[in-house]
Design brief:
With 342 residues, the chain is α+β, with helices and mostly antiparallel strands. α6 crosses α8. The radius of gyration is 25 Å and the shape is elongated. The protein is built from 11 helices and 10 strands. The strands form 2 sheets. Strands 2-3-1-4-9-8-7-6 form an 8-stranded antiparallel sheet. It folds into 2 domains: 243 residues, no CATH class; 59 residues. The two termini are 19 Å apart.
Length: 342
């Protein structure tokens, strides 16, 4: 089963009923760890079987001479016991966290409305200027061009049309923040796998994302400017029904052209006018302060068991690190000693 954590409002109240479901209740949001990627040196190749036992996918890293120089181990939607074992292996073999994806699943009766709102008003802070990438059911804030060697250290994804990965509800909006580089992962306070257990998704999303209606304001300004040009052009001229019909559709055509170049999105408009002041919108998405975890082995639904185990494990790791700093004689192999907290 899944453990659902408590939520609280973090960004105020949004317009147009975005913050509430159809019955007036707040949108239900569940935050969880979608994926983690660990990098290992080539010398640890004989130990890859330990990572495979956790259900991790292994891929090789090659240099420009097509020689294997390391390995990438990725796991999707792990639970707390799996993360504890992964933390032990990562510390044992000097692994590095190269990627971490934190996801939010919003359950709402109108997923398309929320999807469109996030797509048009969402801003990824400190994002390099580049086009947004659209797919059939979702949108990426950053895209990887063909043949590009370097890619963005972060990305933001929103899509709908799929079920909630936690509750199984069909009316769901998936919103995900991807940390794609080791330095970006560490910059957000994730140095070890155990740091993911106590991660605060509310603080993380507030740090990297904000909402703005700059696109709506700019679109309205451009439409008014084009209408003013049309009035000035036909002032004092004779008109007929065909000309009047053409002029009546100027607003619609201008908006259509702006949407075709993604000018209805705050991120694209901000890239086009970087010096323009962006006024943040207050939005309440009820993002959880703690992550939710899947407990595959607990058939009775005892959600507190995982949290208690996690607290014991974190306390155990702190004692080990403290012993290593002081150089005490009680420093021992954490691989065997971790059995005490399982």
């Amino acid at each position: 089963m899944w453990e659902t954590s408590t939520t609280r409002p973090i960004l105020g109240d949004a317009p147009d009923g975005i913050n509430t479901a159809g019955d007036g209740s707040p949108i239900r949001c569940v935050a969880y760890l979608d994926s983690v990627e660990i990098s290992l040196a080539r010398r640890h190749m004989p130990r890859l079987k330990d990572f495979k036992t956790l259900g991790m996918m292994i891929s090789t890293c090659k240099n420009r001479h097509n020689q294997v120089c390391g390995f990438l181990c990725m796991i999707h939607q792990p639970n707390i016991p799996t993360l504890q074992k992964l933390d032990v292996l990562t510390r044992q073999y000097q692994g590095v966290i190269t990627r971490s994806d934190i996801a939010l699943d919003f359950s709402t009766p109108e997923p398309q409305k929320l999807h469109q709102f996030i797509q048009q008003h969402g801003l990824l802070k400190w994002r390099p200027k580049q086009p947004m990438h659209d797919e059939e059911e979702g949108t990426y804030w950053c895209q990887l061009k063909t043949g590009q060697k370097r890619y963005s250290a972060r990305n933001l994804v929103v899509y709908s049309g799929r079920h909630n990965k936690i509750t199984g509800e069909t009316k769901c909006v998936h919103f995900e923040l991807k940390l794609l580089r080791p330095h970006m992962v560490r910059r957000n306070g994730i140095h070890n796998v155990s740091d993911l257990i106590t991660l605060n998704p509310s603080t993380l999303f507030n740090r990297h994302i904000k909402f703005s209606d700059i696109a709506t304001k700019v679109m309205n300004e451009i439409v008014r400017k084009e209408v003013s040009k049309d009035l000035e052009r036909y002032r004092g001229r004779d008109s007929n029904k065909y000309v009047d019909r053409y002029r009546a559709g100027i607003k619609r055509r201008v908006k259509y052209l702006l949407r075709s170049i993604q000018f209805d999105r705050a991120q694209v408009v901000h890239d086009a006018f970087p010096k323009r002041l962006v006024t943040p919108m207050t939005v309440n998405l009820n993002i959880a302060e703690t992550l939710s975890w899947r407990d595959d082995g607990d058939a009775n639904g005892d959600d507190s068991r995982q949290q208690n185990t996690a607290i014991q494990y974190l306390s155990f790791i702190e004692n080990i690190e403290e012993s290593q700093k002081t150089g005490g004689s009680d420093v021992f192999n954490i691989r065997t000693s971790v059995k005490d907290v399982r």
